[in-house]
Design a protein that fits this description.
Low-confidence stretches: 242-302
Structural class: mainly alpha
Number of strands: 2
Strand content: under 5%
Distance between the termini: 100 Å
Helix content: 55-70%
């Protein structure tokens, strides 16, 4: 019995039966017919839609027409330089703008175009992005060390240098902020000390203000103070007359500046850059941080050549630039006064600057005195960095006599063991 059961089980076929295969054939046939019917209904609906459009006179949607691609307009290096100067005024675009400026200077700066390049670079250095952008600092240093400063030296075979005397001095003054100031942002002792020594040489070469310049600066400060007092008095009179604050025009000024700043500069394929829009796109706080000499580069002009036309600065302007760039670097050096590896060099430099503070304007003299007093106060309060002598302690010692000896920071366990406690 069991043998017959095993034989019957082994004789069973593996797969679908004949009836199941018949049902499968019917199912596939019906599916095919349904898909065919759906296609016919869709075609009929399309014909009906076309007939409906014809009856209602509705125009069929036109096929998209591909616009002809215009050929790029060839630009001169001066036009490209003007666009780069505009882009460099935006902090987010500053690193990329410096990369393009390095390539443009390397390929297209010649004896005929060097004046335009110096004017554009001077306008870029007038903004604080050149020293405040961490991503842009290495590119600014690369621009000066690889493209500009080598051209200030004599040419091959002792020939004349690429730049003239005033142009060479102008580039070297810009290098105070572009190279020496930017190299201060480091934790490398050698690089910091080298930059500090270069700035000391710049400080020793500074020329004092003339009496006429000092009187002009004092008059300007007094005039600004009087204008501020008049504004305050006018505002107080308006509040007293109306019982509420008078409308102030300067409140809406930041909004206008913000709108102009949000506008993106024209694309690379447009015409010459509008310098008026680019100068208005700068934030108010950035304009306040610019140097006085840098404002002369902010003049707007409709043409790229007129915008970047080179005008040689006078000796007084060069001296003012040198003094302002050194003072800006001095504010950065002041932040390193708490670093143990830079404290001695910073204190020595500020001591020299304080003794010769008459080289600077009255406002700058007040700031230098404030810095020096802060350094002296910190030096008195700070801990001694030298070795302790015999009988000296870094912290005051409390004498408990009969109980135990301990210090403010010492180990009470050691003191207890000495007295057998």
């Amino acid at each position: 019995m069991s043998r017959r059961l095993q034989q019957s089980q082994s004789a069973q076929l593996i797969g679908r039966s004949r009836a199941e295969r018949l049902l499968d054939r019917l199912y596939h046939h019906q599916s095919k017919e349904l898909r065919k019917r759906q296609r016919e209904q869709g075609a009929a609906a399309g014909v009906n839609e076309a007939l409906k459009r014809q009856r209602l006179a509705i125009p069929a949607p036109a096929a998209p027409v591909k616009k002809p691609r215009s050929e790029p307009v060839a630009q001169t290096p001066v036009d490209a330089l003007a666009k780069i100067v505009t882009y460099a005024q935006h902090r987010q675009k500053f690193p990329k703008a410096m990369e393009l400026l390095i390539k443009l200077t390397k390929d297209h700066m010649t004896a005929e175009t060097k004046g335009y390049f110096l004017t554009g670079i001077g306008r870029i250095m007038a903004h604080n992005h050149a020293t405040s952008s961490p991503e842009g600092r290495p590119r600014v240093i690369q621009l000066f060390e690889q493209e500009l400063l080598p051209k200030t030296k004599s040419g091959d075979g002792g020939g004349e240098p690429f730049f003239g005397e005033l142009e060479r001095e102008f580039v070297e003054i810009l290098a105070i902020a572009a190279v020496h100031h930017n190299k201060l942002f480091t934790d490398d002792t050698y690089q910091f000390t080298t930059s500090l020594s270069r700035l000391k040489a710049v400080f020793e070469a500074l020329e004092p203000y003339t009496q006429t310049e000092i009187e002009e600066m004092v008059d300007d400060d007094e005039q600004e103070q009087q204008e501020a007092e008049q504004k305050v008095e006018g505002r107080a009179e308006g509040e007293g007359a109306e019982g509420e604050p008078a409308p102030q025009e300067h409140r809406s000024a930041p909004v206008t500046v913000k709108k102009e700043q949000d506008e993106e500069p024209s694309s690379a394929g447009d015409g010459p850059v509008d310098a008026a829009a680019s100068s208005a796109a700068v934030k108010p706080e950035e304009q306040d941080n610019d140097s006085e000499f840098g404002s002369s580069f902010a003049a707007a002009a409709p043409s790229s050549h007129a915008l970047l036309e080179w005008s040689a600065p006078s000796r007084d302007e060069l001296c003012m630039m040198k003094r302002l760039y050194f003072f800006n670097a001095l504010s950065t050096i002041f932040t390193y006064r708490h670093k143990s590896w830079a404290r001695t060099a910073v204190e020595h430099l500020f001591q020299q600057v304080y003794l010769k503070r008459s080289l600077f304007s009255p406002a700058e003299q007040e700031q230098i005195s404030s810095w020096q007093s802060d350094i002296k106060t910190h030096k008195k309060q700070g801990p001694s960095v030298g070795a302790l002598g015999i009988g000296e302690a870094a912290d005051p010692v409390r004498d408990a006599r009969e109980e135990r000896l301990s210090t403010a920071h010492g180990s009470g366990v050691w003191a207890a063991k000495q007295f057998g406690l």
